[in-house]
Design the sequence.
């Protein structure tokens, strides 16, 4: 069968633009399912149910000041332990990841 490569191509977006509102609603309901995808390797703390209301939850975190054996990298601005120090240049500390 011969293919006319000069003819305008119809994509999925063209087909969606011509569908009626009722067809689009029906197609949306067909593609949605009540099954929640669960990644077995993902930690449980990242598991969130659709529509879950977490407004009553309160998060408390104890923040510690920078310790004597820690430094802030001048490139990535992350706090690292002294064992991660690569070099110091003009009072600027650089971690191993950024060096």
Sequence:
């Amino acid at each position: 069968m011969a293919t006319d490569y000069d003819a305008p191509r119809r994509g999925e977006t063209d087909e969606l633009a011509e569908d009626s509102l009722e067809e689009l609603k029906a197609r949306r309901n067909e593609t949605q399912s009540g099954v929640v995808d669960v990644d077995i390797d993902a930690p449980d703390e990242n598991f969130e149910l659709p529509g879950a209301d977490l407004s009553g939850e309160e998060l408390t975190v104890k923040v510690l000041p920078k310790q004597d054996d820690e430094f802030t990298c001048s490139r990535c601005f992350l706090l690292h332990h002294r064992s991660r120090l690569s070099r110091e240049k003009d009072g600027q500390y650089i971690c191993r990841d950024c060096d």
Summary: The longest helix spans residues 21-31. The helical segments are 12-18, 21-31. The CA atoms of residues 16 and 24 lie 8 Å apart.
